[in-house]
Amino acid sequence: MHSVRRRWAAALLLLPLLAGCFAARDGSPYDAGAEAGGGRLRVAMAFPPAERFSPYGADATLLSRLGVTEGLTRLDGNGGAVPALAESWTRESGRGWLFTLREARFQDGTEVGPAAVAGALAHATRADPPPAALTGVTLTAEAVGERRVRITTATADSALPLRLSSPGLAILSPKAYRTKAGTRRGAAVDGAAAGGAAVVDPAGTATGPFTLTRTTGATRATLHRFDDYWGGLAHASGLDVRFIADGTARTNALRSGEVDMAEAVPVSQAATLDKATLREVPTARTTALFLNTRSGPFADPAVRAAAREAADTSALADDVYEGHADTGRGLFGPALTWAAGERPRPSGRPAATRVRNTPITLATYDNRPELPEVAQVLQQQLRKAGFGVKLEVREYSRLESDALAGKFDAVVAARNTMLDTGDPVSYLADDFTCDGGYNLARVCDKAVDRAVAEAGSRADDAARHRAALAAQTAVLRTDGVVPLVHQRILHGVGASVRGVILDPYERTLVGTGTRR
Fold it and tell me: pTM for this one?
């Protein structure tokens, strides 16, 4: 992950629908009982906006979680692409797709037409850096008639409908991209960029059920209901959002009644809340140990094997995560229905060498409070195996560039395998191939590249998933990555709140049915 992309070590995807939940209008599971209207909702979010609500970086997911933005497609519970702003699509050729738009309006009152959609996608392709979903992809979009958009990629891309579900490819109205010297048109964000810089403003220019109307720095945001939303009138009249990075403070705000919902309750705080208040969501976020395969001690496969054998993953799931995680089984966890039951058994790994006082630097970040604890446990396990371990903990934005440059011997990180594109092959290509942009383990293996390329050639979903699992096995055979746990996310929800979307992809949280 490039630092500007700030993936925030996320990772997610769903499992079978949770008991006591059923499908919302958009297909996501949510709590029963959202029939009547409600007032404003007070929401505590874990990550503050880092890029003034730019739709192209980490803030893209924040906008989609709060019901502000949407793309042409979205992901269903099985990881497939289903209609959103596009009501249907067909593949015209190996490189061309034709999308038919539904009747919808932007929050500024203008129509979601083909020219506006093509323009929004064109702006995304010119972003610097581009959204993560466009890594390694070149596409063009053109209006075709009154309701259609043709999207053409430079090379065949079977995952395009999945890719277009990415929060980073949200469709905004033309007004979002217009600037004047020293001002942002319609700027609702305090401290907007001056000097005529090209800043994309999602305030009042998106298509979701809620409109971003004002923010106070990186601490608060005010959202109002969008009454002309194509998916129906939201029950809540608006959202009052607080960004509280500290997990304990976020939980305390829910417990004291200051907020109605608190996302991402730390495992250490779960016991302080009533069971009825907690919502546990299996995700595709996998926490793993990434070993530097190109330099230092772990350039030796036998030393990597020694580290892999030293890691006791069951202790991490039971102790650090207090049972709110599953023992690592692979890169793709049990939350993915197509990967459930699969247990990779890589063959041909070298035998572990005996290690004696081999010094290594193990790094992680503290934005997710469980990660330093995981690293501390691993430090002890690796020391018992003969490694001399120096532990370094930083804030993520100060860690990423050094991690990608190979300045550490090992990194503990949490990765959302489906957040960027919803496509497992794209994730594998970005994280584990020689040309990958977020290759923490610095893997460059011909067998891996061949397996990922083979998976990328499959257009059928089932065949693509099978090939992705085969490529996963090739990656694990390198011992460049040691899966530790598959995480679940805990949300705190007040007793009066109904309709919270329990999204395993962590792209949505508040929808039309959310109310109190």
Answer: 0.81
